[in-house]
Design goal:
Elements lengths: L6 E5 L4 H12 L3 E6 L9 H6 L6 E4 L5 H11 L3 E4 L6 H6 L1 H21 L5 E7 L10 H11 L27 H20 L2 E7 L2 E2 L8 H13 L5 E4 L5 E2 L2 E2 H14 L5 E4 L5 E2 H11 L4 E6 L6 E2 L4 E2 L2 E2 L2 E2 L2 E2 H7 L11 E6 L3 E6 L17 H4 L9 H16 L2
Parallel strand pairs: 1-2, 1-4, 2-3, 4-5, 5-6, 6-11, 7-10, 8-20
Antiparallel strand pairs: 9-12, 13-14, 13-19, 15-18, 16-17, 19-20
Helix pairs in contact: 3-5, 5-7, 8-10, 8-13, 10-13
Length: 410
């Protein structure tokens, strides 16, 4: 698609993904406008500065919680396309302050759609939903029984005759497990409602975890790679983390950007499209692969008590799980096969490398009140439009380590 001279409005342009998207569209020759909250100190947002696009975008001061400022942004940008990325997106913060999350994510989306309706805006709007909307996904009968015991009920329940719901397609049940996820379900349904009720040209993207250089330090991949880089540079003697058993479908941010542009071009109005990599890896694997990318060859891991010993835990395989072959580590396979699980009682993991031992310490404060155990996308729908996964998990880790190396040496 030719993006030359197209007017693009990006909400959340100063965020991690927004800045990547803006940089790409600037290269494509678009006129990029960004809705940005007023900053009392007058500084340039870090992501805008990192991408070097401060002189190439047209900032529009505004706030999604104020419908008049949203209407003003539409008037000023006269958009051909709107990418609605702005959100309070940090899941733990949504537990700490659910009202703020609801106000920014739910009310903010409502204001944008209503402003588009009132202004008779014919722009195509891409809504950034989230894989967190799926929430509690059933991966096995054993996990189902554990979840039922923990929560008392599961709604919607597992369909009769099914033992798992993986990989996750767009028709999977939505069981959001955090205020953030609930706010995204609201925005998702409302976006489609405005399409069906008022004829707005809207498409919903449910992107699975997307990572890369510049990802916020509070997100788990950056928590890991930042600490690994500090460990390499002698600034810390351990890695501190929460639940390492959780599995995520990690995709490079550039692949997600490609998906957003593809949906703007070819997505069907009123439809939902997953974006992801069709692979899933544990947080523990992300830690171990990061340690190896930083130059340490891992021989074995065990709990701090010397239990649960695994030799060559990062040994890779491409075995099929849930009908899909994808790259994963030996420890990934063992967790998926219910052969091993790490709990708070283990206190941590000792990683033995060829050069030294690395301590991975569990911090109970980093465990969520309600955890999403596994996210694993089925992206066949967007693949039919031409979407491809170009980057591996190792590519993501390399980019993040290089980013934090540069930060530490500035």
């Amino acid at each position: 698609m030719n993006w030359q001279d197209k007017n693009i409005l990006i909400t959340g342009i100063s965020g991690f993904v927004g800045a990547y998207l803006a940089e790409r569209l600037i290269r494509e020759g678009s006129n990029v406008y960004g809705l940005i909250r007023r900053r009392t100190d007058g500084t340039i947002p870090a992501n805008i500065k990192y991408h070097g696009i401060e002189n190439d975008i047209t900032p529009i001061t505004g706030d999604l919680t104020d419908i008049s400022s949203v209407a003003n942004a539409i008037d000023k940008s006269e958009p051909d396309y709107i990418f609605h990325l702005a959100a309070q997106s940090f899941v733990p913060q949504s537990f700490d302050n659910p009202t703020d999350t609801e106000k920014n994510n739910s009310q903010g989306t409502n204001n944008l759609l209503e402003a588009m309706r009132i202004k008779d805006c014919d722009a195509r709007m891409i809504f950034a939903g989230s894989s967190e909307e799926y929430g509690l996904v059933i991966s096995s009968q054993q996990q189902y029984n554990q979840a039922l015991k923990q929560y008392g009920s599961i709604f919607p329940d597992l369909k009769e005759g099914r033992t798992h719901e993986l990989p996750i397609s767009e028709t999977n049940p939505l069981r959001p497990m955090s205020p953030y996820a609930v706010s995204k379900v609201y925005g998702d349904f409302l976006t489609r409602n405005y399409c069906h009720s008022y004829g707005l040209d809207t498409v919903v993207s449910r992107a699975f975890n997307h990572e890369g250089a510049g990802r916020g330090k509070m997100f788990v991949t950056s928590v890991v790679t930042n600490q690994v880089m500090q460990l390499k540079m002698g600034l810390t003697d351990r890695i501190v983390i929460g639940n390492v058993n959780a599995f995520r479908d990690w995709t490079h941010v550039e692949d997600i950007i490609n998906g957003y542009l593809l949906l703007a071009q070819k997505g069907q109005a009123g439809e939902v499209y997953n974006q992801g990599s069709m692979r899933t890896n544990s947080i523990l694997s992300y830690i171990l692969l990061s340690i190896e990318q930083a130059g340490q060859n891992i021989k074995s891991i065990s709990t701090l008590n010397g239990d649960k010993v695994i030799q060559n835990p990062t040994e890779m395989n491409n075995d099929k799980y849930y009908g899909v072959a994808f790259d994963k580590t030996k420890v990934d396979s063992m967790i998926l096969d219910d052969e091993i699980e790490y709990t708070i009682e283990d206190k941590g993991i000792l990683v033995k490398t060829e050069d030294k031992d690395v301590k991975v310490e569990f911090n109970p404060a980093r465990f969520r009140p309600a955890e999403v155990p596994i996210l694993f996308s089925n992206t066949e729908k967007i693949q039919k439009l031409g979407a491809k996964t170009e980057y591996s998990v190792s590519d993501i880790i390399k980019d993040q380590l290089n980013f934090f190396m540069k930060k530490e040496n500035q």
